[in-house]
Prolyl oligopeptidase (Plantactinospora mayteni), 679 residues
Amino acid sequence: MSPDLDDEFRWLEALSSTEVTAWVRARNAETRDALADDPSFGALSAELRQVLDAADRVPFVHWDGTYLYNLWKDEGHPRGLWRRTTIDEYRRAEPNWEVLLDVDALAAAEGEPWTWQGAIAQRPGHRRCLIRLARGGSDASVVREFDLTDRAFVPDGFTLPEAKSDVGWIDADHIYVGTDFGPGSLTASGYPRIVKRWRRGTPLAEATVVHQGRDDDVSVYAVHDPTPGFVRDFLGRRLDFFRREEFLRTVDGELVRIDVPEDAETDVHREWLLIALRSDWAIGDRTYAAGTVLVTRLDRFLAGERDLTVVFAPGPESAPGRHAWTRGHLILSSLVDVRSRTEVLTPGPDGWRRTPLLETVGPEEERHVVIVDTNPEHSDEYLLASTGFLTPTALHHGTVGGPAETLKRDPAFFDPAGMAVRQLHARSADGTRVPYFLVSPPGEPTGPTLLTGYGGFEMAWTPSYSGIIGRGWLARGGSYVVANIRGGGEYGPRWHRAALRENRLRAYEDFAAVATDLVDRGITIPARLGIEGGSNGGLLMGVMLTRFPELFGAVVARVPLFDMRRYHLLLAGASWMAEYGDPDDEADWAFLREYSPYHNVRPGREYPPVLLVTSSRDDRVHPGHARKMAARMRGYGYDVSYYENIEGGHGAAADNAQLAFKWALMLRFLWRRLTDAPH
């Protein structure tokens, strides 16, 4: 029988129906009764809420023009205050913030559960912006024009109804817009297939098409660069999650291809073109390896010259990280055996000069530095964050060539005295050395161990400070483990490709190897080892549950993918086929079928207890994945708990109260299942 005809729980894919709503409410009530209906849960949730709402936590910012912008959430403003200040004010212990928009007040006035999705400022000038607001935290949002001087929405300004829109300024009276224009205007992934140029004061229906893609593309886009002396427009098609084609659009409308490999990432700053390679690139008699980062002059490249400068070359244990331009420099981060390095590169007559940036910010064994923002339109300033498992996150400011200062630092949300961070390595089934970080309490570990990971989309899982994990797990005697499995970006594109599509099982074997190594080292035992992951990490949890159940004592999966037969038909799922494969292709379904959790859960097996957490408003990973898995496991009589937040989007929480409740639910579930003791 085909997998589609054998899906007795397909009805749970309905996003809203009386029957589905009743089912969700019944499951939520069962989970609340089992985990949340006593004073100790309330105390834990309140403690985590204190972490999230702490008044002295770092108010992270980004630059737009001469201002630093921040969205601030706390108990009094659960949806957030959008505000701004200057760098001089920000240095003060209590900056003077100019509040631009109170999202809670707006939600109350309009009777809508608005959540903040960001703002796009017009450049130059920064007088107007396009604000995104989403109902309940979904990816789809409404767009409204906002005046930053008047601190008010612009009457008769640019507005768009709820959709997964892509918008950007051209000038004060024109924007690029890709949105749901009606039938045929979206790709199979649910993103814009057509992008138009829209003039102020005219109906959207009269906007002029400037670029369009195909139904099986992920999306199309248009970007205007207003940098004085370098004004230009770029158009592109995202062919799949990793490949795209991009063009420079000349003043007479001609499209000039930026002729780089389709899977390369590009970035343009003033006269420079940066190219980050995901695959080997042969040019003439030279081949640049995947993971290499190159820089060249854009005009010469478009003219056919290939004078490329290597600014990062990958090694056996190194990988490129993020980059950011200042006005005259390039800041480049990288990973060496999952430890960060940050450098600044400066162009000159003799090539690019390389110097370290912000080297002394914490213990080497757990420090990680993240590029927060730069202000390339105006200066060579930068903002960097340093963080670690036991080191509260700090925000640093500097100007290239000068000293850095620490502007803000998170409070210590737990006492790390005696705790240790170690980087260890396991051997996977094929002999590959897989790194992982272990954070453990003083002495011999006696509490349960929580293992997490992701292993997908070339995303690296690096050390970071979490008050939630620290206060809710480590401070109570638990150990915490982060596995750097294949499929991620810890060692660059090769680490990612090693677990791509038909090789996906390698990622799961890596995670199982880490679990086995923890037991072999005497750190824990299977009955006291819990695992947790979200999204692609939720798929990882589902595979661990169905393929390696004997290794674990409890499993938590957040907003997970479980049905790999239909994932490409649900919401944004089609955009991930380059990562997982095409279930409609018989050859691809053959390897997807091997690990699809929904198709591999069986009756009569011994599975550890499971908690599934999702959101009704997640319009990225369909809640039907978790619903159907819970229903099937319930039908088989397994210990499965289920909680679906009505709001929250892909994060499964729309505000700090919901986030604290979600984490309290997960941590309490894990602690009770792994210790049979109150948390």
